[in-house]
Structure formats: structure tokens, C-alpha cells
Amino acid sequence: MKQKLLLLSVLFASFSMLAQSYTVVDGDGGAILDGHEVTYGVLTYPEASLDFFVTNTTSAEIYMRIELESAVNADGTGFELCFGECLSNLSIGQSVPAAPEFIAIPVGGTTPQGNHFYNSFAGNGSDVLEYNFRFYLSDAAGNDIGEELRLTYYYDPLLSLNDFEALDVNIFNTTITNELTVDVAEDVNLKVYDLQGRIVKNENLNAGRTSINMSDLSAQMYILQFDNNRGLSHTQKVVVK
Fold first, then answer.
1. What is the predicted pLDDT for the residue at 233?
2. How far apart are the first and last CA of the chain?
């Protein structure tokens, strides 16, 4: 059970620089952008696991680590980060893999399944736990060279299943030739992102069934993000042929 809040108020300059090197998506294909937040109300695996994939979008091999920068109401006990290797009971300031090691991602390559963030620590049973991570690049010698993407993982013990509303979106075709057909239960905004994080379409959709022309887009994978005026979001990966 989780709520994904894609925070898109990112400085365009830093986002453009990041998009030149790598993209990150979750296990459902939803874009993970700088400032992404995810909240869980359970401690069980895989329900509380945020799976992710990193893709190298450059013309050269890249080298990456992930660091637990800080935490609130927690110290990393019971938190597992898998990125090439799995480490549990993280310490503040610890990177995975530990420097000077790194994960090498070849040109156009994507990291395999199995990488995830997962918390099993309950805290005091009432306070929200907050874990702040950063993805960052290193050079071939293992030195930190930045190009950061930050993600915050929350565990809220007071959440229940009823606290989460789902944005009711039905997507009829995830492999698209000309038109994308969707059915939404309420008025929403749709943004279409390419894998470099650029918005290539931005449309307001009325409740009901709608067809969106996609024939002007190049053949590749895209991320759809639907948002309503109550702060709910839904993301979906599609492929234009």
C-alpha cells in the first residue's frame, strides 16, 4: 500500500542536466523524478517495497551509488536498500554500494530487477519515519561527481488502507500506434513524459472516455501522469510504435 506523490516543481536547469545522464522509474514504470516522495503504512514485504530501475541515457558508461543522507525519527535500523547488493540496517551517510565501489550501467543499459527500498522498522508506533536518499554519479575512480536525484521514503504507522484513495483511470491500450484511449472517473490533467523527463503532451481531460492523438510522437516508451485537483496521481508506462 503506498501513495506516490510526484513533485514536479524541479529547477529546470538541474533537471535537464540530470536527464542527460540517467532516468529512474519504479516497478510500475512510473517516473521517479528529483524530489519524489513515497509513503507506506505497512511494514511487510513486498507491500512496503519501492522497486526501481535506472537507465543510462548517455553515450558513455555511468557509475552510480545511492546514499542515505538523513532520517527523521529513525537511524536506518531495519531499512534495506538493494542496489547491486542488499544492505540492511543502514547508517546515516552510508552509500550502496560503499565507496569506492559503484554500479556500472552501460550505454543504454537498465539495472536488473531486485533493486528496492524497504523499511521494516516500526519506530514508536505513532511518529512518521522519514528516510532521505540521493542517487548520485561517481567517476571511474569512485569519486562523487554529483548529478543527484533525491527521493524520500516515509513510513506512517497511523495510515490505514482507507486513508488511500485511488485515482480511477482505465487505459485501454498501452501499446499505441495512433491514439491513446483512456477512461477517467473525474476531470484530470494528463502529462506525457519522454524518458529524458521532458513533457511532450499536457492536456486537461474531462470525465469519461477520451482519445488522445499520439501519432506525432516518436516511437519509444513514455510515462503518463494523471493528476486531479485533490492531489491524487496515477502513472502508467506506454509504448508508442
1. 79
2. 33
- Helix residue ranges per DSSP H, the chain: 12-19
Burial of 103-118, coded b for 16+ CB within 10 Å and e otherwise, reads bebeeeeebeeebbbb
Domains by residue range for the chain, with CATH? 22-159 (2.60.40.10), 169-240 (2.60.40.1930)
Residue 10 confidence (pLDDT) = 33
Q: Which of 3, 25, 46, 6 is nearest to 135 (CA)?
A: 25
Structure confidence at residue 92 (pLDDT): 97
- For residue 128, count other CB atoms closer than 10 A to its CB: 15
- Structure confidence at residue 20 (pLDDT): 55
Q: Are strands 103-105 and 199-205 parallel, antiparallel or unpaired?
A: unpaired
Please state, in angstroms and as integers, the Cα–Cα distance from residue 166 to each residue in 31, 186, 204, following that order: 18, 12, 19
Mean pLDDT by 10 residues, the chain (241 residues): 38 39 90 88 88 95 97 96 96 95 96 95 89 96 93 83 64 89 93 86 94 93 87 83 89
Which residues are CB-contacts of 12 (< 8 A; sequence separation ≥ 6)?
Answer: none
